Structure prediction request, 283 residues.
Amino acid sequence: MPPEIPADADARRAIRPVICYPTHALPDPDLALYRRARDGARKLDEVIVPPRDAACFRVPQGGFFRITGTDGPQVGDLNLWNAGDLSERFYSGKSRALHGTHLTVGERMWSCFPWMRPMATIIEDTLGWYGIDEFGGSVHDVIGTRCDPYTNALLSGGQYHHCCHSNLTRALADETGMPLAEAEKHVHDVLNVFMCTGFTRDTGQYFMKASPVRPGDYLEFLAEIPLLGALSACPGGDCSTEHSSDSAACYPLVVEVFAPAEGALDAWQPPSPNPYDRSHGRG
Prediction:
């Protein structure tokens, strides 16, 4: 039986929203400094992420990394860890709460508690022009979790091993020498690089649509702390039709790592762990 509609229903709906976490107190990243340092940086490494698979890469603190689309429209699922301590990892939920559902230039990938500090700052985004479309869709989301074999088994009953969760698990196991079961515990919710997503207006469901990414488009970051990253080239390709598929057209992604010239970031201060004293009211 549907609930009774109260007499003041329209008035309740008309209450204006407030932003949960105003960010005016957060220091703005010095993008001009970062970009000057990037202009004189030298290339350290290049990693090709094969279609329907994942690969790891490492970035020194104060280094840069760029994710580029190559042969066709392709989205990627990105995990980041502190290279020296995998328990510090990307916290998509808090990044979403601070910046919104989709990230772009000047916004950050924040780490989990108790560190809660910037891990990487976006300094360039060739899809920054996209904005929010008429469906409420935008690119580079922090709302989707990652395609995974567990949800696939629940919904289809099948055993599909090239979901991004499994791809990231294999890549981390190969990089670190961990058994798969141990590596899987470190895999976490992602930044969906190049993916175009939003929520439907009528049912509030998470949707995806064809990514606007084209060969040569890229997303570039400054590493605020030493990073171990893993990137999966999603088996959904551009995610225009299916989320996990052996039939969708899929393409490689490229990760390039750069180091700035000596002294280029002398004016930069790496982020310290969060200042909360961790007493939780019992100090």
The chain has a mean pLDDT of 96. The chain has one domain: 38-259. The two ends are 50 Å apart (CA to CA).
